[in-house]
Amino acid sequence: MFAETDRVRFRQLSAKDAEFIYRLYNSDEFLRFVGDKNLRSVRDAKYYLLDSFLPMYQIAGLGLYLVELKESKTPIGICGLVKRENLEDIDIGYGFLPEYCNKGYGFESAQVTLEYARTSLGLAKLVAITLSHNLPCIRLLEKLGLSFERNVEEAVSGPSLALYSVTFKPAS
Fold first, then answer.
1. Which of 68, 115, 121, 146 is at a distance of 20 to 30 A from 40, taking alpha carbons?
2. Domain 8-167 top-level CATH class
3. pLDDT tens-digit profile of 29-53?
4. CA atoms of 110 and 77, how far apart (whole Å)
């Protein structure tokens, strides 16, 4: 998936993006809402990229892509489609550095990704998972047209993991 909008461009991640991934995955918001992936160094981030991100590109149309500012090529986040073992449907995922949140980049990137899933991949349904207390993510998912479907993981203490979904209308 190679896409762009007026402000951002998507590209595949590579081992050269380890420093960016280290920064993103260790940001306070990412740790709070996604979790600690134990990336304690840029080297850890490089191996995480090689083991987790890059193999996703082997399935046509899937993978998390680097989102960069179009003019400066500054990396600001990730966005893409993932097939998780514990979910029946393909999942949209995204995350942005804190300084680029609340500027419309997440919506812009996710909207392009949804359209790609619907038109290029011909998906009938797309899902997203988020913690039930991640209100910024929930607002974005709802703005994109996804609705709460069910909790997929009930927490003993703390927030549950919620599943949101959208069903695409067949093209006429």
1. 68
2. alpha beta
3. 988 888 889 999 999 999 999 998 8
4. 11
**Residue 166: strand pairing partners:** 126
Does this model's pTM top 0.85? My answer is yes
Chain position carrying tokens 């993991």? 161
Q: Which two tokens stand for residue 44?
A: 């850890």
Nearest to 73 by CA among 26, 114, 1, 20: 20
> Which amino acid, 125?
K
* Domains of the chain, residue spans: 8-167
Q: Whole-angstrom Cα distance, residue 137 to residue 92?
A: 12
27-30, long-range: CB < 8 A, 24+ apart:
27/97, 27/98, 28/98, 29/98, 29/101, 30/95
The per-residue pLDDT for 49 is: 94
- Separation CA 121–CA 43 (nearest Å): 34
